[in-house]
Amino acid sequence: MTAIIQSQDNENVVWHSHNIDKAYRSDQKKQKPCVMWFTGLSGAGKSTVAGALENRLAELGYHTYLLDGDNVRHGLCRDLGFSSEDRRENIRRIGEVAKLMADAGLIVLTAFISPHREERQLVRELLPEGEFLEVFVDTPLGECEKRDPKGLYKKARAGEIKQFTGIDSEYQAPEHPEIHLQAGDKSVTELVELSLCSLKERQIIR
Ligand SMILES: Nc1ncnc2c1ncn2[C@@H]1O[C@H](COP(=O)(O)OP(=O)(O)OP(=O)(O)O)[C@@H](O)[C@H]1O
Ligand SMILES: [Mg+2]
């Protein structure tokens, strides 16, 4: 089947639907695709928890892909800087890639600070209802600053990094996250178990 898409730049771009579709690919993998969008301050534990959850899902036989932080800036988004326009475009591209991966039937995990509600909403709107799971890794600033594994808070406090989230740039906490991990005083194992329970409740996994 084909459909004419009235795209912004080209009125004559035609969408071609193929036989092997998202439903087929997800059935094959015995899972429901979704995008688990981990958000939280630097040092909150997004990469750690998303990585440990991905390990656990792999052990259970599920098919995943983890898109993590700065990695995308080496390729997909290497032309982008850190102006608000570029940050928005960075998140938009990541959202589009996550959407393609969910279309491939995968459970996609992303780990970006993504401090603005508006940018997270933009990604939510790219995906069908129920496929975007906002995961708030809610670790108090004091704890993140104590951990400071990259030494970034120290630099931000010394004025060597400007516009650092939580210090001189706002982090807008999710208002209604699908999964709220109060992560400051819980072990990674506990946080992984809480996330797995939520995936089961939503019938993403069995
Ligand atoms: N639940 C936890 N309990 C104790 N330490 C943790 C926990 N989760 C993560 N950590 C530790 O906190 C530090 C920061 O974790 P991580 O790198 O996952 O943060 P992040 O949210 O991905 O940060 P960034 O946005 O800078 O990439 C690491 O040293 C990690 O080992
Ligand atoms: Mg990280």
TrEMBL record:
- Active site annotation, chain numbering: 114 (phosphoserine intermediate)
The UniProt function text for this chain reads:
Catalyzes the synthesis of activated sulfate.
Keywords of the record:
ATP-binding, Kinase, Nucleotide-binding, Phosphoprotein, Transferase
What name goes with this protein? Adenylyl-sulfate kinase
EC annotation from Swiss-Prot or TrEMBL:
2.7.1.25
Q: What molecular function terms (GO) are annotated for this protein? A: adenylylsulfate kinase activity; ATP binding
Query: Record's NCBIfam families?
Result: apsK (TIGR00455), PRK03846.1 (NF003013)
Record's signal peptide: none
Q: Which family does it belong to?
A: Belongs to the APS kinase family.
Q: What is this enzyme's catalytic activity, as reactions?
A: adenosine 5'-phosphosulfate + ATP = 3'-phosphoadenylyl sulfate + ADP + H(+)
Q: What organism, scientifically named, is this protein from?
A: Photobacterium lipolyticum
**Domain of life where this protein originates:** Bacteria
